[in-house]
Structures are given as structure tokens and as C-alpha cells.
């Protein structure tokens, strides 16, 4: 009964009226969003390493926490796993996610794009598409290195017959084809892939966690029933992403929580602008600014970003620790 009353109230609120926006709740929530944006900008400016001059200045110093090498986007976590396996997995994941997005659009129409879940799902799909492209490039590079090394091996074997000098150097050249990192810093597309990967890590945890622990048990209408597509949209993305975590070699610097915060702020601002122009029900009840608990909801959901992102970062850290012990 209370759920139906809340839904009726949401439908009756005119989000285009000035009185809806000119109140202390909106200004307080807006202040928190602005604080997140400013804090994120400071973190990005301080720790990000897009600037080439800055990279060169830090060559002789400690490695920047945001550094990424080119081969880390397509090489696997274990040397025994060929990069082609990671490529195959990413292509399959991209196909599965794209099929689910298309199915959801066909069934639900364009209105499904108003939900944060869909934003996140599209972003995860984009990640797998971009990561697949980088894996294709990396596999081509890997195979070229193997061919070049094999040709060098033939030359080295011929020279060993004539002279026997620098055996240690030659043995290093003869082993671990393609495993020696060139330590070439990544380009803009590789950095974009890592950033999107980290945003996805936090966003899938937020969407799936909020849906299964808050929306479905407490906020969903009594008539709401789960179907196969809804279950997939709120579960398969995190499963596919965790498998990619196990296979890939991407780092997970914690300061990129800033991008995750900006991603959510972009969604919130989009909803504010849209509802200021068109009066319609909010996609999530806790976004409704007419509620007397709006400021609490916004503040609480903002705080959730930190542990959600932190859990994913810990998973990546544990994986790296396990690999360092057993590899």
C-alpha cells in the first residue's frame, strides 16, 4: 500500500515548476555533486599521467601510480595463457552484452536508457569492444615478435658455431618469446580502456548491489516481477567483468575513483536537466528531490561509491598478490 502511495506522489510532482527546484534540498544535493566534481578534478590533475613531459620527468624517479604500459592492455595475467585466449573471451563477452542491450531496447524501447543500469551496461559493452580492439592489435604485435625472435634464433645459432661469446645475453634472447615487456608507455586508447575498465568495476557493483539489496526488496512495486532479461542485466555484467579481471593484466589505481564519481554525477545532472524540461516520474525513487529524505539518499549513495570501488580494487590486488606468489 505504501509503495503505491509513493508512486502516485511521484507521478503527481511537477518537476518543471520552479518550486520543485528552488528549495534547500536541491541546493544541498547540488552542493554535494559539485564537491564530488571538484574533488575528482583535483585527483585527476594530480595523479593522472597523460602528459608526455611529465612522464619523461618521472623516468628516473619512482613509477607514477597511474602509469600504464602498452602491452598491459592485451597481455594475460599468466604467461602460460596466450593473449589470443583473452581476445577470444573479450569478443564473446562483447557479443553477449551487445545482444542483451539490443534485446532490452526492442522489448522496452528507448525509455530504458533513462536508467543508470543501462548506462552502466552500455559502458561495460563499450569496454569489451574497445578491449577486444586492443587485444587484436596486441595479438598481431605478439605474433610479429615471435616471428622476429625465431629469425633471430636462427642467426644466433649460426653465430654460436663460429664464436662463443656473451652466452648469458644470447640465452636471454632465446627464451621467453614475447614475454619481455618493452616498457613502452600506453597511448590514449589504452589509457581510455583502463579508465573505462575501472569505471565499470565500480558501476557494476553499484548497480547490481543497489538493485538486489535496496530497489528489489524495498522500493519495487508489489506487482513487479523479475524476468530472465532483468536478472541478466543485473548480474551477467559483473560476472563477465570479474572473469576479465582474472585474465587481464590491467592495474587498478585507486585515485581513478574520481572517474567513477564523475560518471555517476553525469547521470544525475542529465536526470536533473531532463526533468527540469519534461515532467515525468524519476527512474529511481531516491532521486526525487521532493522527498524529505532526498538529501540523505544522495549523501548515502555518494558514500557507497567508496566501498564499492574499494571492493573491486581489493579483488584486483588479491589477484596480483596470488599471481606473484605462485607464478
UniProtKB/TrEMBL annotation:
Membrane-crossing residue ranges in chain numbering: 20-45, 87-107, 113-137, 195-216, 228-247, 254-274, 294-316
Top-level taxon of the source organism: Eukaryota
Gene Ontology CC: membrane
Entry keywords, A to Z: Membrane, Transmembrane, Transmembrane helix
Official protein name in the record: Transmembrane protein
Species: Lactuca saligna (Willowleaf lettuce)
Amino acid at each position: 500500500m505504501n509503495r503505491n502511495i509513493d508512486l502516485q506522489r511521484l507521478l503527481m510532482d511537477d518537476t518543471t515548476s520552479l518550486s520543485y527546484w528552488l528549495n534547500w534540498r536541491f541546493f544541498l544535493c547540488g552542493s554535494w555533486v559539485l564537491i564530488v566534481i571538484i574533488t575528482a578534478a583535483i585527483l585527476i590533475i594530480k595523479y593522472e599521467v597523460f602528459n608526455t613531459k611529465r612522464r619523461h620527468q618521472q623516468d628516473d624517479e619512482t613509477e607514477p601510480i597511474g602509469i600504464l604500459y602498452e602491452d598491459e592492455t592485451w597481455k594475460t595475467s599468466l604467461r602460460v595463457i596466450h593473449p589470443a585466449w583473452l581476445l577470444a573471451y573479450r569478443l564473446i563477452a562483447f557479443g553477449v552484452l551487445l545482444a542483451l542491450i539490443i534485446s532490452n531496447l526492442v522489448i522496452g524501447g528507448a525509455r530504458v536508457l533513462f536508467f543508470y543500469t543501462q548506462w552502466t551496461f552500455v559502458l561495460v559493452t563499450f569496454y569489451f569492444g574497445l578491449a577486444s580492439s586492443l587485444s587484436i592489435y596486441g595479438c598481431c604485435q605478439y605474433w610479429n615478435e615471435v616471428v622476429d625472435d625465431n629469425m633471430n634464433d636462427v642467426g644466433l645459432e649460426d653465430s654460436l658455431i663460429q664464436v662463443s661469446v656473451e652466452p648469458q645475453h644470447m640465452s636471454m634472447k632465446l627464451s621467453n618469446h614475447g614475454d619481455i615487456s618493452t616498457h613502452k608507455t600506453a597511448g590514449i586508447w589504452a589509457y581510455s580502456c583502463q579508465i573505462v575498465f575501472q569505471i565499470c568495476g565500480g558501476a557494476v557493483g553499484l548497480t547490481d548491489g543497489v538493485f538486489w539489496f535496496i530497489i528489489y526488496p524495498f522500493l519495487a512495486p508489489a506487482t513487479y516481477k523479475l524476468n530472465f532479461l532483468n536478472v541478466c542485466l543485473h548480474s551477467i555484467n559483473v560476472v563477465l567483468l570479474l572473469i576479465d579481471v582474472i585474465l587481464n593484466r590491467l592495474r587498478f589505481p585507486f585515485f581513478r575513483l574520481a572517474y567513477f564519481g564523475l560518471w555517476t554525477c553525469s547521470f544525475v545532472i542529465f536526470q536533473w536537466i531532463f526533468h527540469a524540461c519534461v515532467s515525468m516520474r524519476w527512474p529511481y525513487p531516491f532521486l526525487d528531490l521532493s522527498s524529505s529524505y532526498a538529501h540523505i539518499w544522495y549523501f548515502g549513495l555518494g558514500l557507497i561509491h567508496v566501498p564499492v570501488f574499494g571492493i573491486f580494487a581489493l579483488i584486483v590486488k588479491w589477484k596480483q598478490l596470488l599471481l606473484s606468489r605462485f607464478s
